User: Which sequence fits this backbone?
C-alpha cells in the first residue's frame, strides 16, 4: 500500500481544512507542499467554491507561504464539461462576476436571457431575484440545467456558514421541478477535467482532503488513491470500517514520510 503513495504522480489537494483553516496554514502543510516539489511530484489545489477564481486562490496560497500553485475549481470543471459536451451552445449563468468573466475568457458563449441552451447555477454571493427568475425561466423553457457543485453551505471563519451552490440549486428545483446535473467534487466530471489538464491517469492520482463525501468520494468514484486527513471536518470516529479511505493521516504533515 505504501508504494502507491511513493509511486503516485499527481496529488489533488483540498484547501480549507486540509492545508489551511481560514487564513492560517495547518502545521506542517507548507513543508508537505515543499516536499512534493522536491520529489518532483505534480500537485494541484482543488476547491468546489466557484464564487472566486484562480487568481484569488493563487494569491491566498502564495500569501500563506505555499508558493506558486496550480489551481482548479468546480468552475473549471464546468467549463471543461461545456466544451466537451455542449460546444457552441448558449449558456445562462447564475454566478458571480468573477465566475462570469472567467467563463467568458474561456470561450463560453454566455447570454443574459432565458432563451439559452444551457442554464448553469453556482455559488452566487451577488444573487438577485431578477437573476433567479431568469434562471428558473430558462430551466422551464427546457435548457439543460447544470450546477457547478452540490455543497449546501460554505463555511466561514468562526464556525459560521452561508448558503452555497446546493442551496441555490434546491430553490431552483423547488420552483421548476427540475434537478440539475451536478459537477465538481465528488462527480466523475471532476476527474475527467483533472485528467484533461494533466494527462495523469486516476490510478496514479491521489485525492487528499478532509471530507468523506467530497474528497474521498471523488477518489472512490474515479479510481484515484484516497488520502483522508483529520485536520478539518472529518474525525477518526466518522471513518467507516467497512469502506475506509486508502490512507488516513492526522494531517498532511504526516504524509511526508510516506511519499
Assistant:
Amino acid at each position: 500500500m505504501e508504494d502507491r503513495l511513493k509511486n503516485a504522480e499527481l496529488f489533488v489537494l483540498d484547501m480549507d481544512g486540509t492545508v489551511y483553516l481560514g487564513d492560517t496554514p495547518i502545521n506542517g502543510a507548507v513543508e508537505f507542499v515543499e516536499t512534493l516539489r522536491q520529489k518532483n511530484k505534480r500537485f494541484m489545489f482543488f476547491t468546489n467554491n466557484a464564487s472566486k477564481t484562480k487568481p484569488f486562490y493563487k494569491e491566498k496560497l502564495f500569501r500563506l507561504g505555499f508558493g506558486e500553485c496550480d489551481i482548479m475549481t468546480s468552475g473549471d470543471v464546468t467549463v471543461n464539461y461545456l466544451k466537451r459536451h455542449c460546444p457552441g451552445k448558449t449558456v445562462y449563468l447564475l454566478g458571480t462576476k468573477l465566475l462570469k468573466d472567467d467563463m467568458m475568457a474561456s470561450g463560453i458563449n454566455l447570454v443574459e436571457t432565458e432563451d439559452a441552451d444551457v442554464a448553469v447555477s453556482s455559488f452566487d454571493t451577488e444573487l438577485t431575484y431578477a437573476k433567479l427568475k431568469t434562471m428558473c425561466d430558462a430551466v422551464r423553457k427546457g435548457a439543460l440545467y447544470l450546477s457547478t457543485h452540490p455543497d449546501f453551505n460554505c463555511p466561514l471563519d468562526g464556525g459560521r456558514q452561508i448558503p452555497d451552490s446546493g442551496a441555490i440549486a434546491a430553490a431552483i428545483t423547488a420552483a421548476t421541478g427540475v434537478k440539475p446535473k451536478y459537477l465538481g467534487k465528488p462527480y466523475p466530471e471532476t476527474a475527467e477535467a483533472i485528467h484533461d489538464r494533466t494527462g495523469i491517469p486516476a490510478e496514479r492520482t491521489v485525492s487528499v482532503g478532509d471530507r468523506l463525501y467530497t474528497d474521498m468520494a471523488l477518489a472512490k468514484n474515479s479510481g484515484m488513491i484516497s488520502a483522508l486527513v483529520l485536520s478539518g471536518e472529518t474525525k477518526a470516529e466518522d471513518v467507516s470500517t467497512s469502506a475506509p479511505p486508502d490512507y488516513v493521516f492526522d494531517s498532511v504533515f504526516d504524509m511526508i514520510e510516506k511519499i
